[in-house]
């Protein structure tokens, strides 16, 4: 993630087509232009302008005058014992750097340009500080090479914010959002609060089922407005843990083309991709390198990478790889969409937090650089792979025959389907009772129906699923927790 001038950015754009015109899919009533005050920004950044215009707090009033940062060394393993080591301690060779108040004494700071405190504590352009913007732009070019010319990036306050902005761009009350049957609850609730109706499409082990999507849209009743947007979490899906294989991504992209859909690609787990799960025996066999991290070059292509039309709005977040409290991410989309997303940002979040941008940009461009970023991604991948493997070993040991699941190759989640006898599963309220019995046994799992892509989640209250996560829990909890789960399930069989 090194920083370069826009001019020296990889220019995959050359010779590529421009995005198609999606004007017809925009929500009616979008702002026509910048808010009046923001429209002066282009003059304000001229170094020789004599401005009495800006209502900006002067730098002398800022509370902070310098920032000393300690970051982890991305090449240092995350702990002595990967399954339980204390990762809170700094490695002795941690990376130290300062974010000074001004970049260099005497140098004029153009507002919004650099990551110094003078700039990053000030209001900044909606798309982000120039340095942050360049950093993520270059990252997108390298990681996703969007196959059309006029893509852009704009900063977000993480993917929850990005989704809110994207739905505001395209949908209005009464529209329909297409989504996976089991999905991220914040997306469901946001869409509902906008008055959207939700059309869930069933999933199989590879994600959203393309045949049902096609049939649903082909048979769409003429009296209802046609859906324009499909929301997908393609990698390490929350809650199912599924990572859509390339063929599925291609099939869904082709359907989006056929039915003129915009794809909202919510992909916070993209860098958390792991090798396939192997049993402990296979892992000790010489032929399997159980940890072999995928790094950044062996990741599954994103929808953005397939996006010849400019119909994907991709949402990236630093939450899962650097820290959710940063509240920092970005959106990649065609220039027209980015223009309106920025206008929306002007009247909502204004911009991502300057300090977060400064921390991340300095870290990625000047401290870690490309090698450090790759090292960090790899150690995250190793960390989660080891946890995932241990978690699934314990599932196999204690829940064999009691649950089934798709072993996740990305993300944080294992979606367990309980295999109780049919008569037991058909008892009304069975999953709620099971949940309560688990809580009594001091085991907390998330009931599957919480993730139904419908506002009335009780419609599937007895869906036989629990979402579990190997991410936050200490690995020493996996075995007692899953063993207890097994005991409780057995009681239902023996009853
Ligand atoms: C699918 C999905 N989207 C978005 C988020 C939130 O991301 P952010 O912290 O960037 O808002 C999460 C997890 O919390 C998630 O699972």
Automatic annotation (TrEMBL):
> Do the record's keywords include Transferase?
yes
- Domain Aminotransferase class I/classII large residues, every copy: 122-474
Q: Which UniProt keywords apply?
A: Aminotransferase, Pyridoxal phosphate, Transferase
- Show the Pfam families listed in the entry: Aminotran_1_2
**InterPro entries attached to this UniProt entry:** Aminotransferase_I/II_large, Class-I_PLP-dep_aminotransf, PyrdxlP-dep_Trfase, PyrdxlP-dep_Trfase_major
Single GO biological process annotation from the record: alpha-amino acid metabolic process
An example Gene Ontology molecular-function term: pyridoxal phosphate binding
Q: Which cofactors?
A: pyridoxal 5'-phosphate
Q: Which SUPFAM superfamilies match?
A: PLP-dependent transferases (SSF53383)
Q: Which family does it belong to?
A: Belongs to the class-I pyridoxal-phosphate-dependent aminotransferase family.
Annotated protein name in UniProt: Aminotransferase class I/classII large domain-containing protein
């Amino acid at each position: 993630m090194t920083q370069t001038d826009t001019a020296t950015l990889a220019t995959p754009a050359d010779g590529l087509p421009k995005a198609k015109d999606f004007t017809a899919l925009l929500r009616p009533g979008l702002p026509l232009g910048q808010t009046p005050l923001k429209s002066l920004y282009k003059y304000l950044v001229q170094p020789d302008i004599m401005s009495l215009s800006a209502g900006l707090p002067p730098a002398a009033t800022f509370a902070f005058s310098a920032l000393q940062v300690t970051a982890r060394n991305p090449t240092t393993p995350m702990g002595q014992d990967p399954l339980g080591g204390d990762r809170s301690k700094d490695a002795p060779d941690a990376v130290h750097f300062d974010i000074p108040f001004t970049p260099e004494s005497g140098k004029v700071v153009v507002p919004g340009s650099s990551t110094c405190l003078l700039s990053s504590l000030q209001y900044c352009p909606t798309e982000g500080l120039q340095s942050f913007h360049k950093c993520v732009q270059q990252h997108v070019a390298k990681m996703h090479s969007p196959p059309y010319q006029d893509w852009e990036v704009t900063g977000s306050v993480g993917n929850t914010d990005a989704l809110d902005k994207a739905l505001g761009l395209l949908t209005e009350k009464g529209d329909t959002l297409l989504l996976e049957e089991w999905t991220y609850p914040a997306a469901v609730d946001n869409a509902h609060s906008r008055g959207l109706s939700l059309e869930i499409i069933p999933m199989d082990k590879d994600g959203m089922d393309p045949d049902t999507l096609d049939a649903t849209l082909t048979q769409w009743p003429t009296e209802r407005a046609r859906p324009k947007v499909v929301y997908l979490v393609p990698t390490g899906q929350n809650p199912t843990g599924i990572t859509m294989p390339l063929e599925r991504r291609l099939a869904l992209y082709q359907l989006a083309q056929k039915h003129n859909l915009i794809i909202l690609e919510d992909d916070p787990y993209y860098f958390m991709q792991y090798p396939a799960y192997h049993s402990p025996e296979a892992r000790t066999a010489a032929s399997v390198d159980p940890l072999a991290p995928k790094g950044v070059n062996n990741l599954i292509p994103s929808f953005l990478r397939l996006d010849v039309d400019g119909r994907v709005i991709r949402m990236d977040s630093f939450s899962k790889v650097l820290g959710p409290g940063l509240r920092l991410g970005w959106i990649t989309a065609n220039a027209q969409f980015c223009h309106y997303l920025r206008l929306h940002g002007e009247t909502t979040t204004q911009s991502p937090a300057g300090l977060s941008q400064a921390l991340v940009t300095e870290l990625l461009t000047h401290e870690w650089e490309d090698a450090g970023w790759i090292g960090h991604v790899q150690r995250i991948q190793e960390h989660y792979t080891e946890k995932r493997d241990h978690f699934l070993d314990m599932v196999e040991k204690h829940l064999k025959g009691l649950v089934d699941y798709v072993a996740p190759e990305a993300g944080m989640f294992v979606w367990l389907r309980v295999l109780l006898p049919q008569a037991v599963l058909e008892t009304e309220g069975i999953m709620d009772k099971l949940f309560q019995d688990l809580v009594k046994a001091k085991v907390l799992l998330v009931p599957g129906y919480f993730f139904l892509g419908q506002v009335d989640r009780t419609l599937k209250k007895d869906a036989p699923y629990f979402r579990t996560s190997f991410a936050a829990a200490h690995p020493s909890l996996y075995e007692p927790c899953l063993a207890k789960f097994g005991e409780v399930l057995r009681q239902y069989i023996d009853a």
